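CDP-diacylglycerol pyrophosphatase (Silvimonas iriomotensis), 252 aa
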Amino acid sequence: MKVRRFLVVALTLASALAAADEQACQGRNDLPRVLEHVCYNGQPDPVSCPYHDDAFGIFENNRAPYHYLLVPKQKVCGIENEALWQSGTHDWFAEAWRLRHMFADAKPVSGGVPLARVGIAINSIPGRSQGQLHVHISCVETGVARQLAAHASQFNDRWQPLDLTTTDGVQHYLARRLAGPQIDADLFASLAKAHPELAADKGNITAFAASVADGDATRPLVLIGHYSDHNQGHAEDLLDGCGNVQAEPRPQ
């Protein structure tokens, strides 16, 4: 009887913790099921799921012609996740950048999708619908790419203000050009040190990264926005789904 009572209490506690966890990740929780179906249900289609391992998968999001998502297998909240902002932890944003070539190579397209055209984004809580952490991978919107190229030479490894003209008006960001070709796994930890006021309001942060060329060097430029009157908290809008890239017909 004591064992049974213990099990009932344990299950009740587990359910309560699960419910609390669900509430902690603000937004729907559909992505883990989609990830499981597309990447882990038998042999995945290399176009629909170009990459998966024990920790996460990258799969096609059918909302746009060329739009993929990196989603962890385990339940992980989005930008507000405390671990994302701590040094030495798994940085999914950096992983998406490292593996963005999977997206560029995933579909047979006329002329291919140049890697330099690919950007990544993660939205704030107000700018997303899904609670599960997910990083968007797609082409940088053409007008945004032009603006970034025009301003590339003025940025260095210190955070500086940048105003971008978008379809939603002028959006304010902080921009930092990284020293190497990859995004540092401690990106958000370093941001927290430089701007503790942003780390104190993690849920309203949105992030974006794209390649910019300055002379012979091509390095990532990272943008950080804060949901406010000057930013929609939806850096995904800086991507365009590669709308002007035409796919070749897939074999029947």
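The chain has one domain: 40-238. The chain has a mean pLDDT of 84. ok done for today
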